[in-house]
Amino acid sequence: MRAKISVFILIAVLFLASCSDQKIIERLGFTRLSAFDSVENSDDIRVTSNIPKADQKGRFILSSVARTSKEARITFSRENNRRIVSGQLRMVLFGDSLAGKGVWKHMDTFVRDSAISQKLFIAVVEGNAGALISKEYKPYPTTSDYLTRLVETNMDAGLIPKANLFTFTRDYMNDGVDPVAPLIKQDAKSVKMTGVALFQDDRYVGRIEQNKSIIFSFLHRKVTGADLSISLDDGEQIMLGNITSKRKLKVTGRSLDQMKLSVHVELHGSIQEYTGDLDLSEGANQMKLESLMSDSLKKTVTELVDMFQRKKVDPLGMGKLIRNRMGSYEEWKAIDQRKAVSEIEVEVEAVVRVKDYGLLQED
Amino acid sequence: MKEKLNYVHVAFLIYVTQSNVFLFSVPRIVAENFGSNGWIGFLICSAAGLFNIFLYSMVYKLAKGRSVFDIIEQSMPKALLYPVYLILAVFWIALGAFVGKQYVNVLQTVTFPTTPSMFIYIFYAYMLYLLLIKNIYVIGKIGILFFLSTIWMVVILVYFLPDWSFSNLTPFLFQSPSVPFSFDNWLEVYSGFIGYELAVFLFPYAQQDNKLFKGVYLGHLLVTAVYLSVILAAFGFYGLQYLQADQFPLVDMLAYVELSFINRIENLLLPFFLYKSLMTTVMYAWAALLMLKRMTRKFKPKVLEAVITLTSIGFASYPKLMRDTQVLVRQSIYVEIMLAFTFPLLLMMLLYWQKLRNGGRLHESKN
């Protein structure tokens, strides 16, 4: 009998748990997108939230000037008949003028709030972020779905770097590396990925143009299934598809003035489009193309790394590699780390390998 | 015939006693106290734990299966011992209660943020009571169940491999800890191992095959292995500075796992850790129960167990904020570490003295 009572109590606890800390969906407003913009001549920020209606047809847009995002949320709750919660927040966008001043102040709350997913997407908007999320984009049913899918597919394709709350926080907090985020822009009818935003600590200081951002992805992480279109010097076009990329960054030398960074990028892919005259069924011609493509890749990679060094940003974590080669940690702490990263000698090696050349066999 | 604990039971029992809420924060605690490559410092602490267990195994050999109570009471007056028993019992109930409350606090950062924490603790204490009224053999078997209910989560660590970076470990040893280096650092990291010392009360309950300490060693090594894999995963995944800033790295790591059909699984996984934490509370409460039973046999069955449960609720209700609980857990564990090291030395001295008095023969009494 006693055992039965115990079992009953334990099972009751299991089910009655839902009676505590209730969250009734009908009474909640799930913020899906949040945008932060700077306010002219003020330290305040304009916070805009996009809250889709439960039936997915339409959304509420709430906007308010506040000191912090949580303060804005409280204002939103005052004017809305639902309680605004952030558990479904999928993406946070920063207007470029605010991003230029530094974003960490506004991101602290996302890391602190356990309701918010660490895989929250972070992006920088060229122009006004609030306006971007307030607009509806036909024929996509909701702006939030449209934007999150857009980011997801572009990330999977390697067109933009992997950047979420976790990677951003990690690269911001740890020494020897800077965070990155995708850069997007509102068009008349759609939203476009326009490149990669480069940060120095938490300040947006530079960008990589769209045509180079895939090459940046090859440098930044391992990418599989990407497509890369290369124009050779004589105007010929090659499209390399199903690419798997490999990258290796290595620092050699023990003292700072002897240190050398070698950047090795390797792409394996199939030729899916080729407008030139070479007969690809011949191995020698494939090798010729490989070397042409490698040269082109090397050129872009060198340009990118040069730009990082010029702008004193470190999205590739070169600083970490320098740190790990230093004789002691004190030595690393004592040097001007940004200077070390921007002055290290860089050697780029790019290799492109053609796995196959498609189904077309030339005669 | 009374059932006896096999050494395999003991291994799991020691494992579930040692591992508790500490697991959520152990990577941060190691990062804060030791800095880069702190896992090496962690292993040194584990070795110190092994040495302490070795001391207990010496006591076990010398005691020849006698319970510690028999050993002590043979040479010391009860009037002197009983107050000590009482203090120890109360201390252990409190220690268990603080560990349990800490679990409730962590749980509330993710789920049930506004439910009164004592409301949750009362159910926790109810489970404590249900286990306490069973004998140690049943508790041992349940320990295995609890072990199985959480150990599979180690597999989840594989999920972090793609984001795991060797360069985050750095080649430096013990650099840039966030607190200045002192003896406290070692104590705080060592806290994670506490729990093995309760093996000293298992002497009469273990099978008479002298394998009791094989189980204790195994349990301790298992805890070390699980902690170490979590620490290494976190160091390479977070990087030092981020790790030092993250209150509960393991909770956040669980939150990072997203499967295509489900995400935010930390809400599902966190309750499983209840069992680990519960077993720590149960084992200390069980030790307290032994102490109390030694002092008086007047009470009806289950009365003392109920008293312990209520006392536990009382202690748990004292700290209101997470930081209060953290301080109490830390301080009581420091005391416990001190006890864990002095107790076997004391026992060995007693046994040696008894041997001298018996003209070189160990006292051969059966309990």
Automatic annotation (TrEMBL), chain A:
Main subcellular localization, coarse class? membrane
Q: Where in the cell is it found?
A: Membrane
**Membrane topology annotation:** Lipid-anchor
Q: Which InterPro entries match?
A: GerAC_N, Spore_GerAC-like, Spore_GerAC-like_C, Spore_GerAC_C_sf
Keyword field contains Signal: yes
The Spore germination GerAC-like C-terminal domain, residue ranges: 194-358
Keywords assigned by UniProt, alphabetized: Germination, Lipoprotein, Membrane, Palmitate, Signal
Q: Which family does it belong to?
A: Belongs to the GerABKC lipoprotein family.
Recorded hits in PANTHER family, A to Z, give: SPORE GERMINATION PROTEIN B3 (PTHR35789)
Please give the name of this protein. Ger(X)C family spore germination C-terminal domain-containing protein
The species is Paenibacillus soyae
From TrEMBL, chain B:
Q: Name one GO cellular component term.
A: membrane
Keywords of the record, alphabetical order, are: Germination, Membrane, Transmembrane, Transmembrane helix, Transport
Task: Kindly indicate whether the keyword ATP-binding belongs to this entry.
Answer: no
Question: Which Gene Ontology BP terms does the record give?
Answer: spore germination
Xref: Pfam families: Spore_permease
Membrane-spanning residues:
7-26, 38-59, 80-99, 119-137, 144-166, 186-205, 217-240, 268-291, 333-353
| Topology class, membrane | Multi-pass membrane protein
Residues in the signal sequence: none
- The keyword Transmembrane helix is annotated on this UniProt entry: yes
Subcellular location as annotated: Membrane
Which family does the entry's similarity section mention? Belongs to the amino acid-polyamine-organocation (APC) superfamily. Spore germination protein (SGP) (TC 2.A.3.9) family.
Q: What is this protein called?
A: Spore germination protein
> What species was this sequence derived from?
Paenibacillus soyae
Phylogenetic placement of the source organism: Bacteria, Bacillati, Bacillota, Bacilli, Bacillales
